[in-house]
Amino acid sequence: MGAWIMAGVTFREAGRKKILWTAVLAGSAFLALFGTGMHFQLKDITRHSLPPFIRYQLEAAMLQVGFYAVDLLAVVMTILTSVDTLSGEMASGTIQAIATKPISRWQILLGKWMGFAGMVAAYVAAMFGGVTAVGYFIGGVLPHHTLSGALLVFLECLLVLTVTFVCGTRFSTLTNGVIVLGLHGLAFIGGWIEQIGAMTDSPRLVTVGVVSSLIMPTESIWRRASFEMQSSFTRSLQFSPFSNASAPSIAMLGYAVVYLLVALIVAIYLFQQRDL
Amino acid sequence: MFGTKIAVSNLSLTVRRGEVFGFLGPNGAGKSTSIKMLLGLVKPSSGQAFVLGVPSDDIDVRAKIGFLPEDFRFYTWLTASELLKLHGRLCGMPASLLRERVPALLDLVGLSPHREKRLRDFSKGMLQRIGLAQALIHEPELIFLDEPTSGLDPMGRRLVRDVIRVQRDRGATVFLNSHILSEIEITCDRVVFIKEGEVVASRDLRAFPDAEVGVVARARNLSAQTVAGLSQWSTSARLDGERLTLTTHSTSVLPDILRYLTASGSDIFEFTPQRLSLEDLFLKIMGEDRGL
Questions:
Q1: Are residues B59 and A5, on separate chains, in Cβ contact within 8 Å?
Q2: What's this model's pTM, rounded to 2 decimal places?
Q3: pLDDT single digits (tens) B69-113
Q4: A45 to chain B, closest Cα gap in Å
Q5: N or C: which end of chain A has fewer CB within 10 A?
Q6: What's the CATH number for B20-204?
């Protein structure tokens, strides 16, 4: 019960933060820009009288660009909205009035986590819905396995959220933000190194990429999401953030889920151990 | 322990049920940390703490405890009513009970006109008042108040005193940590002085008038022999012109002293008992601050 109360208040808190509405505004601006871009792309394609197959594939590739931007926005929004929820409340003493109520610390942390997870789910759903709608109504193209892609991006955001919580139990807000963004950046670069390794048949580069994915599996999840949603033509583009030379395996997804659960348990343990 | 720094040490104290207990000590004595240990916010590296008869880390016992942290802060986007409802729900109170309790508490702390105002628009004093209300929302048996009058104007301080009195009258125990000794003196039944994590003294303030009393009198026709005769009641007596100062161990002997002086033929114009204030006692126990 206590966890649900905390989830509710956290969800409402996230809704009252300017950062969320800034992200929503940025998302809306992005959708408008994306729709405009797709509209003019379609006009140019029509003017050049490209074959329908090529036209469809180009529109599908554009759609992947849109989902990539949504992924980036969702990850950044997740970090920025949740980065001070633990460290900030511990620093200000706000948490003391809650932690002295008949509610376990694990309920406080899990409740907050659920609140942010709910907010991120709504954001990802809205943005995926927006990009899909733009793709369908303007470009006349639908992604493959949109739901799988959205769920995987949601999983990626949950991973980022959980790591933010782990660091939030120990570090200040600023340090926490630097660490989590740094880890996400590491995963991003690692993903590219892995792609280059796969393209140039360099096992050592692939190993470096896999190790970075084991440290922070976010980029792997995005690449799997992208793999799920893209057409065969887009896949053939290979070397780009929006496509894959090597798609992460199901085992990597399993690893990411275990990573998330372990990180959540670690966050709860650290929060229970620390003085408030 | 915080790293290599010792926070508190061999503190050992007992608070009786139903009393208003004052917790005194200089800055850095370990008062707030001790309260945090009793509330399960800080884990002691050794030793035990029991609250209402159960270990302090017991979750269920917190339903019987209220806490006003020093410098109360909370989500600024909540209104006063929403804050109290949230804390009531965290204490397991049903919505029907909260509908009655929230307006009553807002009234008690003088915030009824501001019930729908957001905390971001509250002054420091108003935050303290709403913090006090959240500590009382579930009518706790034990209430910890850490510097409850911090930031309050004189009306606010009186309100806190009245609230504490009401809580004591309904049988609650109040654990009060304050730097404002005059407040403690008026409010508390008993005080404990701590210094560097050790309990160095304890005083029952209700019995305090009998502890040590000074008297300043203005008298004429007072002989040196009469002054010497005061030694049967007083620990010291000194005559300086018309001004007589003496100390006794009990107020109960004051009528005898007055009768003795008038019987000796002295004209008494003034006879004023002067108790040692809590501040005097505090300084006597802790020693003067030599930092300045």
A1: no
A2: 0.83
A3: 988 889 988 999 999 999 999 999 999 999 999 999 999 999 999
A4: 50
A5: N
A6: 3.40.50.300
pLDDT tens, A181-223?
Answer: 999 999 999 988 988 888 888 889 989 988 999 999 999 999 8
Which chain A residues touch B89 with a CB distance below 8 Å? 5
- A27: containing domain: 2-273
Residues B171-208 as b or e (16 or more Cβ within 10 Å = b): ebbbbbbbebbebbbebbbbbbbbbebebeeebebeeb
* Structure tokens belonging to residue B141: 């048996």
Fold adopted by B212-275: Alpha-Beta Plaits (3.30.70)
- For residues B82-120, one letter each, b for 16 or more C-beta atoms within 10 angstroms of the residue's C-beta and e for the rest, the string is bbbbbbbbbbebeeeebeebbeebbebbebeebbeebbe
Of A48-57, A244-253, B45-54, B182-191, the range with the highest mean pLDDT is: B182-191
B88 touches chain A (CB under 8 A): no
CB-side neighbour CA atoms (13 Å) of A271: 30
Tokens of B205: 């303030």
Closest CA in chain A for residue B82: A9
CA-CA-CA-CA torsion for B102, B105, B109, B111, nearest 10 degrees? 30
Count of domains in chain A? 1
**Which residues 1-30 of A are in CB contact (within 8 Å) with B?**
1-2, 5, 9, 12-13, 16
Mutation for A interface: B60, B83, B90, B120, most A CBs within 10 A: B90
| Residue-wise burial string across A169-183, b where 16 or more C-beta atoms lie within 10 A, e elsewhere | bbbbbeebbebbbeb
| B89 touches A: beta carbon within 8 Å | yes
Domain boundaries, chain B: 20-204, 212-275
| pLDDT value, residue B64 | 94
Distance of CA B238 to the CA centre of its chain: 34
Across the interface, which of B2, B69, B90 has its CB nearest the CB of A5?
B90
Backbone angles phi, psi at B175, to 5 degrees: -110, 110
pLDDT band at residue B291, thresholds of 50, 70 and 90?
A: very low
Q: Please give the Cα distance from B121 to A144 (Å, whole number).
A: 50
